[in-house]
Amino acid sequence: MSHKRQRQPKLLRMTAVALAAASISMAASAQQSLRFAHVYETSEPFHKWALWAADEIEQRTEGRYTMQVHPASSLGKEEDINEGLELGTIDVIYTGTQFAGRSYGPIGIAGAAYMFRDFDHWQAYADSDLFQEIAEGYQNATGNVPVALNYYGERHVTSNKEISVPEDMRNLRIRVPNAPLYMMFPRAVGANPTPIAFDEVYLALQQGVVDAQENPLPTIRAKAFHEVQDYINLTGHITDSLITIVGGPRWNQLSEEDREIFREVFEEAARNNTEEIVQAEQDLVAWFEEQGTTVNQVDRTPFREAVMPEHLGDAATWDEETYERLQAIGQ
């Protein structure tokens, strides 16, 4: 009798431990770990706000989802991470509209040279029904879901010679990202566009593989391209964007409540990215000049006039109605 009384508390303790372990195991299995991949440096706002978004999603979903952010092409080049969405090996990415346009042509319109008059035109498009319609078209075509549009900045040409008119770019070997729409501007002005992966550009410039490259001022600073280029020519040829996209395999697993949380968080992160890039563009001209880089103010009119005929040319992956609607926004 006493022997049984001694064993019972021990049995209860063992049962309690087993139940606690099972509860922890169930909680761990219920928690989903996501991967957010991008090609940008840890010093850039895009990474900072991706980390913020990861924390917010974990908090707002009460720990149902955690997210690891993989910067600086650590999970592959931009083509690779786009493919990762389709495969379900990556859950969230930032990508240029030109890369997204490989899968659904109309979404690339925002990445065409001189498509926007200025930042205000870009912002009006980002907030428009047209962008929402195009995003839905991309989702229908790919299964992946664009949830926010981030301002990436005006792209400018860096080089080792001054570029002031389109003729200055004739035969210039200029690095561009590996998506067809990035070719529109250099081809229109007689340059030779050369696709090179983002993480290889500094070395390509340093070794003279290419003569020039083009990116927004914050990216030029983050990647230190000014160290291997003498001039920043303010061509402003693309008012560029990054789309935050959630992969279809992951999106389809989310409840409606969690989908709304993801949208809200990534839209807020995009607004914060946009504000920081706008401010950086205002501040960086003086900073580059302090570093000894020549910042060349350019009359963009002849460059724009060289490119405009291409907007509905062979490279266009959108129809005339979409183009006219975009041009009418904000008028």
Description:
Strands 1, 2, 3, 4, 5, 6, 7, 8 and 9 form a nine-stranded mixed beta sheet that branches. The chain has 331 residues and is α/β, with parallel strands linked by helices. The relative contact order is 0.16. The chain contains 13 helices and nine strands. It has one domain: Bacterial extracellular solute-binding protein, family 7 (D-Maltodextrin-Binding Protein, domain 2, 3-Layer(aba) Sandwich), CATH 3.40.190.170.
The major beta sheet can be summarized as:
9 strands, mixed
Going by helix content, strand content and strand pairing, the class is alpha/beta
Q: Which architecture does the CATH hierarchy give at level 2?
A: 3-Layer(aba) Sandwich
Radius of gyration from CA coordinates? 24 Å
Mean pLDDT rating: 93
- The H-and-E topology, N to C, reads as HEHEHEHHHEEHEHEHEHHEHH
Quaternary assembly: single chain
CATH topology: D-Maltodextrin-Binding Protein, domain 2
Give the name of the CATH superfamily. Bacterial extracellular solute-binding protein, family 7
Stretches where pLDDT falls below 50 for ≥5 residues?
1-6, 16-29
Number of strands: 9
Summed up, the helix count is: 13
Organism: Billgrantia tianxiuensis
Protein name: DctP family TRAP transporter solute-binding subunit
Subcellular location: Cell envelope
InterPro entries: DctP_fam, TRAP_DctP, TRAP_DctP_sf
Task: List the keywords.
9 strands, 19% strand, 331 residues, D-Maltodextrin-Binding Protein, domain 2
